[in-house]
UniProtKB/TrEMBL annotation:
The gene is queE. It catalyses: 6-carboxy-5,6,7,8-tetrahydropterin + H(+) = 7-carboxy-7-carbaguanine + NH4(+). Keywords: 4Fe-4S, Iron, Iron-sulfur, Lyase, Magnesium, Metal-binding, S-adenosyl-L-methionine. [4Fe-4S] cluster binds at residues 31, 35, 38. Its cofactor is [4Fe-4S] cluster; Mg(2+); S-adenosyl-L-methionine. This is 7-carboxy-7-deazaguanine synthase. Binds 1 [4Fe-4S] cluster. The cluster is coordinated with 3 cysteines and an exchangeable S-adenosyl-L-methionine. Binds 1 S-adenosyl-L-methionine per subunit. Catalyzes the complex heterocyclic radical-mediated conversion of 6-carboxy-5,6,7,8-tetrahydropterin (CPH4) to 7-carboxy-7-deazaguanine (CDG), a step common to the biosynthetic pathways of all 7-deazapurine-containing compounds. Residues 14-246 form the Radical SAM core domain. Homodimer. SUPFAM superfamilies: Radical SAM enzymes.
């Protein structure tokens, strides 16, 4: 099986409870959502090459023709050493669930970074994913075109499918913006609290469509409220943005 891949590189995880761990990132193109704070370029087509990093921490890449086969990706993964896990990121990796399922022979554990809105994709790969970094989008984060209730329910279903277990760690990341309401966060958290090890509240990083940071007081209030629902609630910004790594 083959799939388009935007890039493969080594860096450190910059978000959530595994921040600082050394990972291979396999970045897939395209997403089914358009979040206001998204920091990944959306323009991409099949004529684009897959960029493979030669040396970790150095902006030197080798071009591969797309789409890549499962065997090609597995061979590239074997090239790198001293890795915690393979981050499957995007875009939205669950769009490529059938391809990901064939990466079960990876040298390193698989770490899914997903918006969690595609439960059928989650079901496809649930038995091979060791770490789940799942988003829960709140009402202000995207233009849901009147479909937020469906997105909400699909997200809750995906968390149920990929819930924490003796084999898998599953945590939720919620972006917090200045326009978010505490009640919406609590409603979302109430649906998935039994599926999680940890809730990460991530203050939004200002971007093209998000010009204002969220006040510290608001984030602290959200954390306090969330701790009535789940014990382990942490505030962690995008740490990789602080030191300029990929």
């Amino acid at each position: 099986m083959r799939s388009p891949v935007r890039e493969i590189f080594v860096s450190v995880q910059g978000e959530g409870p595994y921040a600082g761990y050394r990972q291979i990132f396999v970045r897939f193109p395209k997403c089914n959502l358009e979040c206001l704070y998204c920091d990944t370029p959306k323009e991409w087509d099949m004529s684009n090459k897959c960029m493979i990093q030669i040396t970790p921490g150095v902006n030197e890449f080798k071009e591969f023709d797309n789409p890549l086969s499962n065997d090609q990706v597995l061979e590239i993964i074997k090239y790198y050493n001293k890795i915690h896990s393979v981050s499957l990121t995007g875009g939205e990796p669950l769009l490529y669930a059938r391809f990901i399922k064939e990466l079960k022979y990876s040298r390193y554990p698989l770490y899914l970074e997903s918006n969690m809105t595609l439960p059928e994709g989650a079901k496809e790969i649930k038995d091979i994913i060791k770490y789940v970094a799942g988003d829960f989008k709140l009402k202000t984060h995207c233009d849901f075109k009147g479909q937020y209730e469906k997105v909400f329910n699909d997200t809750a279903r995906s968390f149920s499918i990929l819930r924490k277990s003796s084999f898998r760690d599953c945590f939720c990341k919620m972006i917090i913006t200045k326009d978010d309401e505490k009640e919406n966060m609590l409603h979302a958290l109430d649906q998935i609290k039994g599926c999680l090890s940890t809730l990460i509240l991530q203050p939004v990083t200002p971007a093209e469509k998000i010009s204002e940071p969220v006040p510290v007081k608001k984030v602290m209030e959200f954390q306090e409220a969330a701790m009535d629902v789940i014990e382990d609630v942490r505030v962690i910004p995008q740490t990789h943005k602080m030191w300029g790594c990929l």
